[in-house]
Amino acid sequence: MVKICCIGAGYVGGPTMAVIALKCPSIEVAVVDISVTRIAAWNSDQLPIYEPGLEDVVKQCRGRNLFFSTDVEEHVSEADIIFVSVNTPTKTRGLGAGKAADLTYWESAARMIADVSKSNKIVVEKSTVPVKTAEAIEKILTHNSKGINYQILSNPEFLAEGTAIEDLFNPDRVLIGGRETPEGRKAVQALKEVYANWVPEDRIITTNLWSAELSKLAANAFLAQRISSVNAISALCEATGANVAEVAFAVGKDTRIGPKFLNASVGFGGSCFQKDILNLVYICECNGLPEVANYWKQVIKINDYQKSRFVNRVVSSMFNTIAGKKIAVLGFAFKKDTGDTRETPAIDVCKGLLGDKAKISIYDPQVTEDQIQRDLAMNKFDWDHPLHLQPMSPTAVKEVSVTWDAYEATRGAHGVCILTEWDEFRKLDYAKIYENMQKPAFVFDGRNVVDPEKLREIGFMVYSIGKPLDPWLKDMPAVAA
Protein backbone atom coordinates (compact mmCIF):
# COMPACT_ATOMS: atom_id res chain seq x y z
CA MET A 1 0.00 0.00 0.00
CA VAL A 2 1.41 3.34 -1.04
CA LYS A 3 1.45 5.87 1.80
CA ILE A 4 1.23 9.58 1.12
CA CYS A 5 1.84 12.26 3.72
CA CYS A 6 1.18 15.96 3.22
CA ILE A 7 2.86 18.53 5.46
CA GLY A 8 0.56 21.55 5.79
CA ALA A 9 -3.22 21.35 6.23
CA GLY A 10 -4.17 24.60 4.55
CA TYR A 11 -6.05 25.67 1.43
CA VAL A 12 -3.86 23.49 -0.80
CA GLY A 13 -2.97 20.48 1.32
CA GLY A 14 -6.42 19.75 2.75
CA PRO A 15 -8.53 19.68 -0.44
CA THR A 16 -5.80 18.10 -2.63
CA MET A 17 -5.22 15.21 -0.25
CA ALA A 18 -8.96 14.69 0.32
CA VAL A 19 -9.48 14.26 -3.42
CA ILE A 20 -6.45 11.93 -3.78
CA ALA A 21 -7.89 9.81 -0.94
CA LEU A 22 -11.32 9.74 -2.60
CA LYS A 23 -9.99 8.82 -6.04
CA CYS A 24 -7.34 6.34 -4.82
CA PRO A 25 -8.98 4.10 -2.18
CA SER A 26 -5.87 1.87 -2.09
CA ILE A 27 -3.60 4.73 -0.98
CA GLU A 28 -3.40 5.81 2.64
CA VAL A 29 -3.26 9.60 2.89
CA ALA A 30 -2.24 11.53 6.02
CA VAL A 31 -2.38 15.31 6.30
CA VAL A 32 -0.15 16.60 9.09
CA ASP A 33 0.27 20.04 10.61
CA ILE A 34 1.82 21.39 13.79
CA SER A 35 -1.30 23.51 14.39
CA VAL A 36 -3.45 21.55 16.86
CA THR A 37 -6.51 23.77 16.29
CA ARG A 38 -6.32 23.39 12.52
CA ILE A 39 -6.09 19.59 12.67
CA ALA A 40 -8.92 19.50 15.23
CA ALA A 41 -11.04 21.51 12.79
CA TRP A 42 -10.28 19.07 9.94
CA ASN A 43 -11.42 16.25 12.23
CA SER A 44 -14.63 18.07 13.24
CA ASP A 45 -17.91 18.92 11.51
CA GLN A 46 -16.74 22.51 11.00
CA LEU A 47 -13.87 22.33 8.52
CA PRO A 48 -11.30 25.15 8.75
CA ILE A 49 -11.92 26.29 5.16
CA TYR A 50 -15.06 26.77 3.12
CA GLU A 51 -14.99 25.29 -0.35
CA PRO A 52 -18.05 23.99 -2.23
CA GLY A 53 -18.03 20.17 -2.24
CA LEU A 54 -15.10 19.81 0.16
CA GLU A 55 -17.14 18.62 3.12
CA ASP A 56 -18.67 15.71 1.16
CA VAL A 57 -15.27 14.50 0.00
CA VAL A 58 -13.74 14.72 3.49
CA LYS A 59 -16.67 12.92 5.11
CA GLN A 60 -16.52 10.04 2.62
CA CYS A 61 -12.82 9.35 3.25
CA ARG A 62 -12.00 10.55 6.75
CA GLY A 63 -11.09 7.64 9.01
CA ARG A 64 -11.01 5.23 6.04
CA ASN A 65 -7.92 6.20 4.06
CA LEU A 66 -7.71 9.91 4.92
CA PHE A 67 -6.28 10.99 8.27
CA PHE A 68 -5.57 14.39 9.79
CA SER A 69 -2.93 14.39 12.50
CA THR A 70 -0.49 16.50 14.49
CA ASP A 71 1.86 13.53 14.73
CA VAL A 72 4.02 14.94 11.96
CA GLU A 73 7.16 12.86 12.42
CA GLU A 74 5.49 9.46 12.59
CA HIS A 75 3.53 9.98 9.35
CA VAL A 76 6.51 11.50 7.54
CA SER A 77 8.77 8.60 8.44
CA GLU A 78 6.21 6.04 7.21
CA ALA A 79 5.32 7.79 3.93
CA ASP A 80 6.57 6.87 0.46
CA ILE A 81 5.58 10.19 -1.08
CA ILE A 82 5.67 13.43 0.95
CA PHE A 83 3.87 16.50 -0.31
CA VAL A 84 5.04 19.77 1.19
CA SER A 85 2.43 22.51 1.10
CA VAL A 86 3.59 24.92 3.77
CA ASN A 87 3.32 28.68 3.48
CA THR A 88 5.85 30.57 1.38
CA PRO A 89 5.05 34.13 2.42
CA THR A 90 6.74 37.25 1.10
CA LYS A 91 9.69 38.24 3.29
CA THR A 92 8.95 41.21 5.52
CA ARG A 93 12.56 41.99 6.48
CA GLY A 94 16.13 41.35 5.43
CA LEU A 95 17.45 40.58 1.97
CA GLY A 96 14.68 40.80 -0.63
CA ALA A 97 12.09 42.13 1.86
CA GLY A 98 8.76 42.88 0.21
CA LYS A 99 9.59 40.71 -2.81
CA ALA A 100 11.45 37.48 -2.11
CA ALA A 101 9.70 34.38 -0.81
CA ASP A 102 10.36 33.44 2.79
CA LEU A 103 11.43 29.80 2.77
CA THR A 104 11.75 29.39 6.55
CA TYR A 105 8.84 26.94 6.82
CA TRP A 106 10.00 25.03 3.76
CA GLU A 107 13.49 24.63 5.12
CA SER A 108 12.35 23.43 8.53
CA ALA A 109 10.07 20.90 6.81
CA ALA A 110 13.01 19.63 4.75
CA ARG A 111 15.25 19.31 7.79
CA MET A 112 12.55 17.45 9.66
CA ILE A 113 12.09 15.04 6.73
CA ALA A 114 15.85 14.37 6.74
CA ASP A 115 15.80 13.81 10.52
CA VAL A 116 13.00 11.26 10.69
CA SER A 117 13.29 9.35 7.40
CA LYS A 118 14.40 5.74 7.50
CA SER A 119 13.56 4.79 3.89
CA ASN A 120 13.78 6.36 0.43
CA LYS A 121 11.33 9.23 -0.16
CA ILE A 122 9.84 11.17 -3.01
CA VAL A 123 9.44 14.78 -1.83
CA VAL A 124 6.92 16.86 -3.77
CA GLU A 125 6.81 20.66 -3.76
CA LYS A 126 3.16 21.62 -3.72
CA SER A 127 3.33 25.19 -2.40
CA THR A 128 4.10 27.99 -4.79
CA VAL A 129 7.84 28.31 -4.56
CA PRO A 130 10.44 30.39 -6.32
CA VAL A 131 12.40 28.77 -9.13
CA LYS A 132 15.40 26.84 -7.84
CA THR A 133 13.81 26.04 -4.45
CA ALA A 134 14.02 22.37 -5.34
CA GLU A 135 17.79 22.71 -5.60
CA ALA A 136 18.05 24.18 -2.08
CA ILE A 137 15.77 21.51 -0.65
CA GLU A 138 17.74 18.82 -2.43
CA LYS A 139 20.97 20.08 -0.86
CA ILE A 140 19.50 20.03 2.65
CA LEU A 141 18.17 16.49 2.18
CA THR A 142 21.28 15.01 0.54
CA HIS A 143 23.69 16.59 3.03
CA ASN A 144 21.67 15.04 5.87
CA SER A 145 20.76 11.86 4.03
CA LYS A 146 22.30 9.07 6.16
CA GLY A 147 22.38 6.97 2.99
CA ILE A 148 18.71 7.52 2.14
CA ASN A 149 17.79 8.45 -1.42
CA TYR A 150 15.53 11.48 -1.94
CA GLN A 151 13.92 12.49 -5.21
CA ILE A 152 12.51 16.00 -5.43
CA LEU A 153 9.53 16.71 -7.67
CA SER A 154 7.69 19.93 -8.39
CA ASN A 155 3.91 19.49 -8.70
CA PRO A 156 2.46 23.01 -8.52
CA GLU A 157 -1.21 23.42 -7.66
CA PHE A 158 -3.47 25.30 -10.07
CA LEU A 159 -6.57 25.55 -7.89
CA ALA A 160 -8.97 28.46 -8.01
CA GLU A 161 -10.75 29.11 -4.75
CA GLY A 162 -14.47 28.60 -4.91
CA THR A 163 -14.00 25.85 -7.51
CA ALA A 164 -11.07 23.94 -5.94
CA ILE A 165 -12.83 20.57 -5.71
CA GLU A 166 -14.09 20.78 -9.29
CA ASP A 167 -10.56 21.84 -10.36
CA LEU A 168 -9.13 18.78 -8.61
CA PHE A 169 -11.73 16.38 -10.04
CA ASN A 170 -11.29 17.69 -13.55
CA PRO A 171 -8.01 19.61 -13.91
CA ASP A 172 -6.93 21.42 -17.10
CA ARG A 173 -3.52 19.89 -16.51
CA VAL A 174 -1.42 18.23 -13.84
CA LEU A 175 2.19 19.33 -14.03
CA ILE A 176 5.00 17.18 -12.67
CA GLY A 177 8.60 18.34 -12.89
CA GLY A 178 11.54 16.15 -11.96
CA ARG A 179 15.23 15.57 -12.47
CA GLU A 180 16.19 14.18 -15.89
CA THR A 181 17.98 11.17 -14.41
CA PRO A 182 16.81 7.53 -14.27
CA GLU A 183 15.86 7.96 -10.56
CA GLY A 184 14.17 11.27 -11.31
CA ARG A 185 12.10 9.76 -14.11
CA LYS A 186 11.10 6.86 -11.88
CA ALA A 187 9.87 9.30 -9.21
CA VAL A 188 7.89 11.27 -11.81
CA GLN A 189 6.30 8.02 -12.96
CA ALA A 190 5.33 7.10 -9.38
CA LEU A 191 3.49 10.40 -8.89
CA LYS A 192 1.99 10.18 -12.36
CA GLU A 193 0.47 6.81 -11.42
CA VAL A 194 -1.31 8.41 -8.46
CA TYR A 195 -2.98 11.08 -10.63
CA ALA A 196 -3.68 8.59 -13.44
CA ASN A 197 -6.34 7.04 -11.17
CA TRP A 198 -8.68 9.78 -12.35
CA VAL A 199 -6.87 12.23 -14.64
CA PRO A 200 -6.62 11.37 -18.38
CA GLU A 201 -3.05 10.59 -19.43
CA ASP A 202 -2.88 13.46 -21.94
CA ARG A 203 -3.52 15.99 -19.18
CA ILE A 204 -0.56 14.90 -17.09
CA ILE A 205 2.41 16.93 -18.30
CA THR A 206 5.96 16.09 -17.29
CA THR A 207 8.79 18.64 -17.50
CA ASN A 208 12.13 19.36 -15.90
CA LEU A 209 12.12 20.78 -12.37
CA TRP A 210 12.67 24.41 -13.29
CA SER A 211 9.99 24.49 -15.96
CA ALA A 212 7.41 23.17 -13.50
CA GLU A 213 8.40 25.70 -10.83
CA LEU A 214 8.35 28.59 -13.27
CA SER A 215 5.08 27.54 -14.97
CA LYS A 216 3.15 28.20 -11.79
CA LEU A 217 4.54 31.73 -11.34
CA ALA A 218 4.08 32.48 -15.03
CA ALA A 219 0.47 31.23 -15.08
CA ASN A 220 -0.49 33.46 -12.15
CA ALA A 221 1.36 36.42 -13.63
CA PHE A 222 -0.52 36.01 -16.93
CA LEU A 223 -3.88 35.80 -15.15
CA ALA A 224 -3.19 38.84 -12.99
CA GLN A 225 -1.95 40.70 -16.05
CA ARG A 226 -5.30 40.16 -17.79
CA ILE A 227 -7.11 41.68 -14.82
CA SER A 228 -4.77 44.67 -14.72
CA SER A 229 -5.15 45.10 -18.48
CA VAL A 230 -8.93 45.31 -18.33
CA ASN A 231 -8.73 47.52 -15.21
CA ALA A 232 -6.40 49.92 -17.00
CA ILE A 233 -8.91 50.10 -19.86
CA SER A 234 -11.73 50.71 -17.33
CA ALA A 235 -10.10 53.99 -16.27
CA LEU A 236 -9.96 55.07 -19.91
CA CYS A 237 -13.60 54.04 -20.41
CA GLU A 238 -14.70 56.33 -17.57
CA ALA A 239 -12.71 59.20 -19.02
CA THR A 240 -14.19 58.75 -22.53
CA GLY A 241 -17.75 57.54 -21.92
CA ALA A 242 -17.07 54.00 -23.20
CA ASN A 243 -18.49 51.01 -21.32
CA VAL A 244 -15.85 48.53 -20.17
CA ALA A 245 -18.32 45.63 -20.18
CA GLU A 246 -19.00 46.21 -23.87
CA VAL A 247 -15.30 46.64 -24.66
CA ALA A 248 -14.34 43.48 -22.73
CA PHE A 249 -17.11 41.49 -24.42
CA ALA A 250 -15.96 42.61 -27.86
CA VAL A 251 -12.31 41.87 -27.07
CA GLY A 252 -13.12 38.49 -25.51
CA LYS A 253 -14.94 37.37 -28.67
CA ASP A 254 -11.52 37.06 -30.32
CA THR A 255 -10.78 33.36 -29.85
CA ARG A 256 -7.08 34.09 -29.41
CA ILE A 257 -7.91 36.22 -26.37
CA GLY A 258 -11.04 34.51 -25.01
CA PRO A 259 -13.58 35.88 -22.53
CA LYS A 260 -12.21 34.73 -19.15
CA PHE A 261 -10.67 37.07 -16.58
CA LEU A 262 -11.86 40.20 -18.38
CA ASN A 263 -14.17 41.55 -15.68
CA ALA A 264 -13.16 45.04 -14.62
CA SER A 265 -13.19 45.41 -10.86
CA VAL A 266 -11.78 47.24 -7.88
CA GLY A 267 -8.72 44.99 -8.20
CA PHE A 268 -7.48 41.41 -7.82
CA GLY A 269 -6.81 39.77 -4.48
CA GLY A 270 -6.08 36.30 -3.21
CA SER A 271 -3.04 34.73 -1.66
CA CYS A 272 -1.08 34.10 -4.84
CA PHE A 273 -1.24 36.73 -7.55
CA GLN A 274 0.62 39.52 -5.84
CA LYS A 275 2.97 37.18 -3.98
CA ASP A 276 3.86 35.24 -7.13
CA ILE A 277 4.45 38.34 -9.24
CA LEU A 278 6.66 39.91 -6.54
CA ASN A 279 8.53 36.65 -6.50
CA LEU A 280 8.88 36.62 -10.28
CA VAL A 281 10.13 40.22 -10.14
CA TYR A 282 12.71 39.30 -7.51
CA ILE A 283 13.95 36.28 -9.48
CA CYS A 284 14.29 38.47 -12.60
CA GLU A 285 16.27 41.06 -10.65
CA CYS A 286 18.54 38.39 -9.15
CA ASN A 287 19.19 37.04 -12.62
CA GLY A 288 20.16 40.46 -13.99
CA LEU A 289 16.91 41.09 -15.90
CA PRO A 290 15.65 44.48 -14.67
CA GLU A 291 13.59 45.16 -17.83
CA VAL A 292 11.63 41.96 -17.34
CA ALA A 293 11.22 42.72 -13.63
CA ASN A 294 9.84 46.21 -14.36
CA TYR A 295 7.42 44.82 -16.92
CA TRP A 296 5.77 42.53 -14.33
CA LYS A 297 5.88 45.17 -11.60
CA GLN A 298 3.41 47.23 -13.63
CA VAL A 299 0.74 44.56 -13.16
CA ILE A 300 0.79 45.19 -9.41
CA LYS A 301 1.08 48.97 -9.83
CA ILE A 302 -2.11 49.09 -11.92
CA ASN A 303 -3.86 46.95 -9.30
CA ASP A 304 -2.85 49.38 -6.52
CA TYR A 305 -3.85 52.32 -8.73
CA GLN A 306 -7.30 50.78 -9.29
CA LYS A 307 -7.92 50.51 -5.53
CA SER A 308 -6.81 54.07 -4.78
CA ARG A 309 -8.82 55.36 -7.76
CA PHE A 310 -11.92 53.71 -6.28
CA VAL A 311 -11.38 55.35 -2.89
CA ASN A 312 -10.81 58.71 -4.61
CA ARG A 313 -14.12 58.35 -6.47
CA VAL A 314 -15.93 57.70 -3.19
CA VAL A 315 -14.40 60.73 -1.49
CA SER A 316 -14.71 63.16 -4.40
CA SER A 317 -18.35 62.19 -5.10
CA MET A 318 -19.33 62.89 -1.52
CA PHE A 319 -18.29 66.56 -1.54
CA ASN A 320 -14.65 65.69 -0.92
CA THR A 321 -15.27 64.63 2.66
CA ILE A 322 -16.40 61.38 4.19
CA ALA A 323 -15.34 62.25 7.75
CA GLY A 324 -17.89 60.90 10.21
CA LYS A 325 -20.12 59.56 7.42
CA LYS A 326 -21.32 55.97 7.60
CA ILE A 327 -20.31 53.96 4.54
CA ALA A 328 -21.56 50.42 4.05
CA VAL A 329 -19.14 47.87 2.61
CA LEU A 330 -20.81 44.86 1.03
CA GLY A 331 -18.37 42.00 0.63
CA PHE A 332 -14.93 41.57 2.19
CA ALA A 333 -13.68 38.27 0.69
CA PHE A 334 -11.42 38.68 -2.35
CA LYS A 335 -14.03 36.97 -4.56
CA LYS A 336 -17.38 35.25 -4.21
CA ASP A 337 -17.87 31.71 -2.91
CA THR A 338 -14.88 31.79 -0.58
CA GLY A 339 -14.32 33.09 2.93
CA ASP A 340 -10.73 33.94 2.05
CA THR A 341 -9.66 37.54 2.66
CA ARG A 342 -5.97 37.25 1.83
CA GLU A 343 -4.83 40.34 -0.12
CA THR A 344 -8.48 41.22 -0.76
CA PRO A 345 -8.88 44.69 -2.33
CA ALA A 346 -11.43 45.39 0.43
CA ILE A 347 -8.57 45.79 2.92
CA ASP A 348 -6.94 48.68 1.05
CA VAL A 349 -10.30 50.27 0.22
CA CYS A 350 -11.43 50.12 3.86
CA LYS A 351 -8.09 51.47 5.05
CA GLY A 352 -8.40 54.31 2.52
CA LEU A 353 -11.91 55.17 3.76
CA LEU A 354 -10.81 54.95 7.40
CA GLY A 355 -7.84 57.17 6.58
CA ASP A 356 -10.38 59.78 5.54
CA LYS A 357 -12.18 59.29 8.87
CA ALA A 358 -15.27 57.48 7.56
CA LYS A 359 -17.27 55.09 9.75
CA ILE A 360 -17.67 51.76 7.98
CA SER A 361 -20.18 49.00 8.40
CA ILE A 362 -19.21 45.73 6.72
CA TYR A 363 -21.27 42.72 5.70
CA ASP A 364 -19.90 39.55 4.10
CA PRO A 365 -21.79 36.23 4.15
CA GLN A 366 -18.66 34.13 4.78
CA VAL A 367 -16.15 36.29 6.67
CA THR A 368 -16.19 36.58 10.46
CA GLU A 369 -15.89 39.84 12.37
CA ASP A 370 -12.73 38.55 14.02
CA GLN A 371 -11.10 37.98 10.63
CA ILE A 372 -12.10 41.42 9.32
CA GLN A 373 -10.75 43.20 12.40
CA ARG A 374 -7.53 41.20 12.17
CA ASP A 375 -7.09 42.02 8.47
CA LEU A 376 -7.59 45.74 9.05
CA ALA A 377 -5.12 45.79 11.96
CA MET A 378 -2.39 43.85 10.16
CA ASN A 379 0.60 45.11 8.24
CA LYS A 380 1.09 44.11 4.62
CA PHE A 381 2.33 40.50 4.21
CA ASP A 382 1.70 39.66 7.90
CA TRP A 383 -1.30 37.49 7.02
CA ASP A 384 0.88 34.80 5.53
CA HIS A 385 2.95 34.24 8.65
CA PRO A 386 1.77 32.01 11.52
CA LEU A 387 -0.84 33.45 13.87
CA HIS A 388 1.50 33.65 16.84
CA LEU A 389 3.80 35.96 14.85
CA GLN A 390 0.96 38.30 13.90
CA PRO A 391 0.14 41.41 15.95
CA MET A 392 -1.55 40.38 19.17
CA SER A 393 -5.36 40.61 19.37
CA PRO A 394 -5.88 43.75 17.35
CA THR A 395 -7.41 46.68 19.10
CA ALA A 396 -10.71 46.56 17.26
CA VAL A 397 -10.72 49.41 14.79
CA LYS A 398 -13.31 51.59 16.49
CA GLU A 399 -14.74 53.06 13.31
CA VAL A 400 -15.57 49.62 11.91
CA SER A 401 -18.67 47.60 12.67
CA VAL A 402 -19.47 44.20 11.17
CA THR A 403 -23.08 43.15 10.63
CA TRP A 404 -24.73 39.92 9.53
CA ASP A 405 -27.17 41.50 7.15
CA ALA A 406 -26.82 43.81 4.13
CA TYR A 407 -29.86 45.88 5.13
CA GLU A 408 -28.43 46.47 8.59
CA ALA A 409 -25.06 47.49 7.12
CA THR A 410 -26.65 50.06 4.78
CA ARG A 411 -29.13 51.56 7.27
CA GLY A 412 -28.38 55.26 7.74
CA ALA A 413 -25.37 55.13 5.41
CA HIS A 414 -24.39 57.88 2.97
CA GLY A 415 -22.82 55.43 0.53
CA VAL A 416 -22.59 51.72 -0.29
CA CYS A 417 -19.39 50.14 -1.66
CA ILE A 418 -19.80 46.72 -3.27
CA LEU A 419 -16.41 45.01 -3.03
CA THR A 420 -17.19 41.30 -3.60
CA GLU A 421 -19.45 39.89 -6.33
CA TRP A 422 -21.56 37.64 -4.07
CA ASP A 423 -24.70 36.56 -5.97
CA GLU A 424 -26.95 37.76 -3.16
CA PHE A 425 -25.87 41.37 -3.78
CA ARG A 426 -27.54 41.20 -7.20
CA LYS A 427 -30.84 40.25 -5.58
CA LEU A 428 -31.03 42.84 -2.79
CA ASP A 429 -34.08 45.10 -2.54
CA TYR A 430 -32.30 48.34 -3.42
CA ALA A 431 -35.49 50.41 -3.11
CA LYS A 432 -35.68 49.36 0.55
CA ILE A 433 -31.99 50.15 1.00
CA TYR A 434 -32.49 53.59 -0.58
CA GLU A 435 -35.33 54.43 1.82
CA ASN A 436 -33.13 53.78 4.84
CA MET A 437 -30.09 55.74 3.64
CA GLN A 438 -29.03 59.36 3.98
CA LYS A 439 -29.66 61.42 0.81
CA PRO A 440 -28.11 61.90 -1.64
CA ALA A 441 -27.51 58.13 -1.52
CA PHE A 442 -24.50 56.75 -3.38
CA VAL A 443 -23.66 53.29 -4.68
CA PHE A 444 -20.04 52.58 -5.64
CA ASP A 445 -20.04 49.26 -7.44
CA GLY A 446 -16.52 47.82 -7.43
CA ARG A 447 -17.61 44.56 -9.07
CA ASN A 448 -20.21 45.69 -11.61
CA VAL A 449 -22.92 43.54 -10.01
CA VAL A 450 -25.80 46.03 -10.11
CA ASP A 451 -27.64 47.61 -13.03
CA PRO A 452 -26.69 51.31 -12.78
CA GLU A 453 -29.76 52.47 -14.73
CA LYS A 454 -32.21 50.64 -12.45
CA LEU A 455 -30.50 52.10 -9.39
CA ARG A 456 -30.59 55.61 -10.86
CA GLU A 457 -34.35 55.23 -11.36
CA ILE A 458 -34.68 54.47 -7.64
CA GLY A 459 -32.76 57.68 -6.92
CA PHE A 460 -29.19 56.55 -6.27
CA MET A 461 -26.06 58.29 -7.53
CA VAL A 462 -24.17 55.38 -9.05
CA TYR A 463 -20.50 54.83 -9.82
CA SER A 464 -19.75 51.56 -11.65
CA ILE A 465 -16.16 50.79 -12.58
CA GLY A 466 -15.51 51.47 -16.26
CA LYS A 467 -19.13 52.47 -17.01
CA PRO A 468 -20.29 55.89 -18.32
CA LEU A 469 -20.36 58.31 -15.39
CA ASP A 470 -23.39 59.70 -13.63
CA PRO A 471 -23.79 63.41 -14.64
CA TRP A 472 -23.19 64.14 -10.95
CA LEU A 473 -19.76 62.46 -11.01
CA LYS A 474 -18.69 64.16 -14.24
CA ASP A 475 -18.46 67.46 -12.37
CA MET A 476 -16.32 65.93 -9.67
CA PRO A 477 -12.55 65.61 -10.10
CA ALA A 478 -11.52 61.96 -10.62
CA VAL A 479 -8.75 62.44 -8.09
CA ALA A 480 -9.53 63.94 -4.71
CA ALA A 481 -7.50 67.13 -4.49
From TrEMBL:
<dbReference type="Pfam" id="PF03721">
    <property type="entry name" value="UDPG_MGDP_dh_N"/>
</dbReference>
<dbReference type="Pfam" id="PF00984">
    <property type="entry name" value="UDPG_MGDP_dh"/>
</dbReference>
<dbReference type="GO" id="GO:0003979">
    <property type="term" value="F:UDP-glucose 6-dehydrogenase activity"/>
</dbReference>
<dbReference type="InterPro" id="IPR014026">
    <property type="entry name" value="UDP-Glc/GDP-Man_DH_dimer"/>
</dbReference>
<dbReference type="GO" id="GO:0006024">
    <property type="term" value="P:glycosaminoglycan biosynthetic process"/>
</dbReference>
<feature type="binding site">
    <location>
        <position position="161"/>
    </location>
    <ligand>
        <name>NAD(+)</name>
    </ligand>
</feature>
<protein>
    <recommendedName>
        <fullName>UDP-glucose 6-dehydrogenase</fullName>
        <ecNumber>1.1.1.22</ecNumber>
    </recommendedName>
</protein>
<feature type="binding site">
    <location>
        <position position="342"/>
    </location>
    <ligand>
        <name>NAD(+)</name>
    </ligand>
</feature>
<dbReference type="InterPro" id="IPR014027">
    <property type="entry name" value="UDP-Glc/GDP-Man_DH_C"/>
</dbReference>
<feature type="binding site">
    <location>
        <begin position="127"/>
        <end position="128"/>
    </location>
    <ligand>
        <name>NAD(+)</name>
    </ligand>
</feature>
<dbReference type="InterPro" id="IPR036291">
    <property type="entry name" value="NAD(P)-bd_dom_sf"/>
</dbReference>
<dbReference type="InterPro" id="IPR028356">
    <property type="entry name" value="UDPglc_DH_euk"/>
</dbReference>
<comment type="function">
    <text>Involved in the biosynthesis of UDP-glucuronic acid (UDP-GlcA), providing nucleotide sugars for cell-wall polymers.</text>
</comment>
<feature type="binding site">
    <location>
        <position position="38"/>
    </location>
    <ligand>
        <name>NAD(+)</name>
    </ligand>
</feature>
<dbReference type="GO" id="GO:0006065">
    <property type="term" value="P:UDP-glucuronate biosynthetic process"/>
</dbReference>
<comment type="pathway">
    <text>Nucleotide-sugar biosynthesis; UDP-alpha-D-glucuronate biosynthesis; UDP-alpha-D-glucuronate from UDP-alpha-D-glucose: step 1/1.</text>
</comment>
<dbReference type="GO" id="GO:0005634">
    <property type="term" value="C:nucleus"/>
</dbReference>
<feature type="binding site">
    <location>
        <begin position="272"/>
        <end position="275"/>
    </location>
    <ligand>
        <name>NAD(+)</name>
    </ligand>
</feature>
<keyword id="KW-0560">Oxidoreductase</keyword>
<comment type="similarity">
    <text>Belongs to the UDP-glucose/GDP-mannose dehydrogenase family.</text>
</comment>
<feature type="active site" description="Nucleophile">
    <location>
        <position position="272"/>
    </location>
</feature>
<dbReference type="GO" id="GO:0051287">
    <property type="term" value="F:NAD binding"/>
</dbReference>
<dbReference type="Pfam" id="PF03720">
    <property type="entry name" value="UDPG_MGDP_dh_C"/>
</dbReference>
<dbReference type="InterPro" id="IPR017476">
    <property type="entry name" value="UDP-Glc/GDP-Man"/>
</dbReference>
<feature type="binding site">
    <location>
        <position position="33"/>
    </location>
    <ligand>
        <name>NAD(+)</name>
    </ligand>
</feature>
<feature type="binding site">
    <location>
        <begin position="86"/>
        <end position="90"/>
    </location>
    <ligand>
        <name>NAD(+)</name>
    </ligand>
</feature>
<feature type="domain" description="UDP-glucose/GDP-mannose dehydrogenase C-terminal">
    <location>
        <begin position="328"/>
        <end position="452"/>
    </location>
</feature>
<dbReference type="InterPro" id="IPR036220">
    <property type="entry name" value="UDP-Glc/GDP-Man_DH_C_sf"/>
</dbReference>
<dbReference type="InterPro" id="IPR001732">
    <property type="entry name" value="UDP-Glc/GDP-Man_DH_N"/>
</dbReference>
<feature type="binding site">
    <location>
        <begin position="8"/>
        <end position="13"/>
    </location>
    <ligand>
        <name>NAD(+)</name>
    </ligand>
</feature>
<dbReference type="InterPro" id="IPR008927">
    <property type="entry name" value="6-PGluconate_DH-like_C_sf"/>
</dbReference>
<keyword id="KW-0520">NAD</keyword>
